[in-house]
Specification:
Radius of gyration: 23 Å
Strand order of the largest sheet: 1-2-3-15-14-13-9-10-12-11
Oligomer: single chain
Number of helices: 21
Number of strands: 15
Structural class: alpha/beta
Strand content: 5-15%
CATH architecture of the domain at 283-482: 3-Layer(aba) Sandwich
Length: 557
């Protein structure tokens, strides 16, 4: 710890000296630095992939390795390219030009398109997908321009040091969190990695070498005590954490106990600095009843399986609760399809600390260790929230998902009940998903739009895993904006806000009920690693002539 303290002190002194230089750095120079980081990420991608796969027990040349590529260097490269595009508009015109058409939702609030984004061939790579942001009711067409990049412009007149406490599960998270603080909030950054992925520290420093060499970013690793020392350091002005609710509460109020409880009652936090956060979710997947074709059931069953198995289920947005209509005739068939897929998929190394203990507590049994260190994909059907409330009120952060059913008289009645259920009975506000048959959308469009408006989640995925919104990097990512320090839910603030929207209520990402070719994040895609590598090359230096190279691996999936 002594050496970590010495390093932290040194790094914070260096960042303090760099604060005024970063504030004075013009936009065009910032764009050059961001572009240089794209090159650094691309150069480091293979080493980054190899280290991540080794830590998670994944063969580097296997389709599963695509997860580490897509959720690591690919996501960071995409973020940087989108950031550069917006910064260029700000440098050239003083404004960020939003997509059109801007419309109104079911409750009269502005709907601002977010996706497909410009310049990255999204309409080709994600044909049929679209995303939009819902803005608060006091943001209107007349005053919208006042709420785009205003926070960014104000931040340019200030200087501060932010500590970013990085997540240990998905490797792009700490990097993009740090870049968001730097480029969108005008803070120099001390990035402290989680011990779970501390091995990435030298790779991150190399990837972002232009910022490190200029003195605007420092990267350290260490345990919770090292993080605690950094955030309480007098030179640190702000904190951001992606992690667990327990870690956030310990930072803000102190370790669990009488003193922490008293601070919360009196509204006197231990941390007297601004803090932003992303803290996970019991992610629900609501299945609207109706008549689905066999192809639609098969596709969406694999969609759900992908939400469970990706990254061995160590995702804050992994599917943790399937909500169905009790009398839906296809209910058991759909669940059987999900279960059959999970039974065929190879188990993964449960690399995240405490996974086995959490599995036993949630599932209520000891798992078989076959292969050693792996845990079985588990779907617990018919879970009663009154008898097993932990499935609904705690994020398991392990490879287990529950299913519960609600009684309803019709599809409309079910959707109303399901929205109320997840809003009131399920912990978290980060993201939720909806599976909807086309006939329902045609017959009840107003009712469906109202359901979207009522869901209290930062991101809602329609027919698609909400985590894809994270990877798109143009869809703001964070909990529903109802959080306070006293009731933090899934966190405070947004990242990935590359459209520079100042005021947000939620985002919606929608996809067709089935798509073709098979999405490369589906666990049965046999060429996912090849396709992910070629998409990374496309995001490195976007060019239309690279698109034909994606066709072969996409179709071979």
């Amino acid at each position: 710890m002594e050496s970590t303290v010495t390093t932290t002190d040194q790094f914070l002194n260096e960042l303090a000296a760099a604060k005024p230089r970063w504030r004075q750095t013009p936009l065009r120079r910032r764009i050059e630095l961001a572009a240089a980081c794209v090159e650094g990420v691309f150069r480091s991608a293979r080493q980054w992939l190899t280290a991540s796969c080794a830590a998670k027990g994944i063969a580097v040349d296997s389709p599963t390795a695509s997860e580490e590529l897509a959720a690591g260097p690919l996501a960071v490269a995409r973020y940087l390219q989108l950031l550069i595009a917006s910064l260029r508009q700000l440098a050239e015109t003083g404004h960020v030009r939003l997509l059109e058409p801007i419309s109104l939702d079911a409750r009269g609030r502005l709907r601002v398109p977010l996706f497909p984004a410009r310049g990255l061939f999204d309409s080709v790579l994600f044909a049929g997908y679209r995303a939009w942001a819902i803005l608060p009711s006091d943001v209107t067409r007349e005053n919208l321009a006042e709420h785009v990049a205003g926070n960014f412009r104000r931040s340019l007149d200030s200087e501060a040091i932010a500590v970013v406490l990085g997540a240990g599960n998905v490797s792009s998270i700490p990097v993009v969190d740090a870049l968001s603080k730097l480029f969108q909030e005008n803070r120099v950054v001390l990035l402290k990695l989680n011990p779970v992925n501390g091995y990435l520290a030298p790779i991150f420093a190399a990837s972002l070498a232009p910022l490190v060499e200029a003195g605007f970013l420092r990267v350290i690793e260490g345990d919770a005590a090292a993080g605690g020392y950094a955030i309480q350091h007098p030179q640190v002005d702000e904190v951001h954490i992606t992690g667990s609710l327990a870690a956030h509460q310990a930072i803000v109020w102190g370790p669990p106990g009488d003193e922490s409880d008293q601070r919360r009652r009196q509204g006197e936090p231990l941390l007297n600095k601004p803090i932003t956060s992303e803290l996970g979710n019991v992610t629900p997947w609501i299945v609207t009843p109706g008549e689905y074709s066999e192809r639609q059931l098969n596709f969406q069953a694999e969609n759900v399986a992908a939400m469970i198995v990706n990254n061995a289920s160590f995702n804050c947005i992994a599917a943790k609760l399937i909500v169905t209509a009790r009398d839906w005739p296809q209910r058991q068939r759909f669940l059987d399809k999900v279960g059959a897929l999970l039974s065929r998929l190879p188990r993964r190394l449960a690399y995240y600390p405490g996974a086995r203990e959490r599995f036993c507590r949630f599932v209520g049994r000891e798992p078989e260790d076959q292969p050693p260190g792996a845990l079985p994909w588990t779907l617990a059907c018919g879970v009663d929230p009154r008898r097993q409330p932990h499935w609904f009120q705690e994020e398991s952060f392990v490879c287990a998902c529950a299913e519960t059913s609600l009684a309803a008289d019709s599809a409309e009645d079910f959707l109303n009940r399901a929205v109320e259920f997840v809003n009131e009975r399920v912990w978290g506000t980060l993201g939720a998903g909806l599976m909807v048959p086309p006939r329902f959308r045609r017959q009840s469009p107003a009712m469906f739009d109202d359901a979207l408006a009522r869901l209290r989640y930062g991101t809602v995925g329609v027919n698609v895993w909400p985590a894809l919104a994270y990877g798109m990097m143009c869809v703001p990512w964070g909990g529903y904006p109802c959080a306070t320090l006293a009731d933090t839910q899934s966190g405070i603030g947004w990242v990935h806000n590359t459209w520079f929207l100042d005021r947000l209520e939620k985002s919606v990402l929608e996809a067709p009920l089935t798509v073709w070719p098979k999405p490369f994040w589906f666990p049965t895609h046999q060429q996912a690693h090849v396709l992910a590598g070629r998409v990374l090359d496309l995001y490195h230096r976007p060019a239309w002539w690279k698109l034909p190279g994606l066709i072969g691996p996409a179709l071979a999936g």
